[in-house]
Design goal:
Largest sheet: 6 strands, antiparallel
Radius of gyration: 19 Å
Number of domains: 1
Structural class: alpha+beta
Number of helices: 12
Shape: globular
Order of helices and strands: HEHEHHHHEEHHEHEHHH
Helix content: 40-55%
Strand order of the largest sheet: 2-3-1-4-6-5
Length: 236
């Protein structure tokens, strides 16, 4: 998948672990460091294997998205987003969090992340960060799998990695994409020319199969830009 899409970093396998889940496959993974979820994803796309317990996620919004903790009052009221300069009105920020898809409290015990190629088992979700052109092909592959139904994005331009690319695909069993968000762009090395999407782990093999089809003709033809080059040759 990395090669076909032309990615410089790895697609990331996400494991959403319930209490009592088998932890053997994740022994020896990096743990104990407080990280924002988007920062753990950053490390994983660059080859690291990360395990985050309930108290290891430093971002309160991400911790709430995974059902680990309640949202702090500054976020539920929207005042925090006003303070960050993200919204004009507290009511807007409050509505953004009120509509946030999230896992119910107590459903998960921990989250584990690693490069997809190193996944010890089938992941719950796969998250991919990269250039929009690369992610476009994944969206097109998904459209093929869904019989041509238009793909839709669900985002509040907030919590792009934890909610948009992880929780939504997990809960709704579908691919979701985002333009990124204030938090992940401030806290990680994601480039201005990169964005993020996620899809349920069970879609990995079907998506790969369609990507193999797309790489034969559609991808090289599009990337060759023959129509654009022809326009240049014909221009006065």
């Amino acid at each position: 998948m990395k090669e076909i899409l032309g990615l410089s970093t790895e697609p990331v396998a996400i494991f959403l672990l319930k209490a009592g889940s088998e932890t053997g496959p994740f022994k020896g993974w990096e743990s104990g460091e407080r990280l924002r979820y988007c920062q753990a994803l950053m490390k994983a796309r660059r080859g690291k294997k990360i395990w985050l317990g309930k108290d290891d996620i430093a971002c309160p919004a991400a911790a709430a998205a995974f059902g680990f903790k309640e949202l702090p009052k500054g976020l539920t009221t929207g005042a925090g987003l006003v303070g960050f300069g993200i919204v004009e009105a507290a009511e807007t920020g409050s509505a953004m969090f009120a509509g946030m898809p999230r896992l119910e409290p107590g459903r998960l015990e921990s989250v584990a992340l690693c490069p997809l190629k190193d996944a010890p088992a089938a992941p719950d979700v796969v998250v991919v960060e990269g250039p929009p052109e690369s992610l476009m092909w994944l969206a097109l592959a998904d459209l093929n799998l869904e019989g041509g139904a238009r793909r839709r994005a669900d985002t509040a331009v907030l919590q792009a990695t934890c909610v948009d690319a992880t929780v939504v695909p997990f809960l709704e069993k579908r691919l979701n994409f985002s333009l990124g968000c204030y938090g992940c762009r401030e806290a990680t090395d994601i480039e201005p020319g990169e964005t993020v999407l996620g899809f349920p782990g069970e879609k990995t093999e079907p998506l790969y199969r369609v990507l193999e089809l797309l790489r034969k003709k559609a991808m090289p033809n599009s990337r060759d830009k023959a129509a654009f080059r022809h326009l240049g040759e014909c221009a006065p």
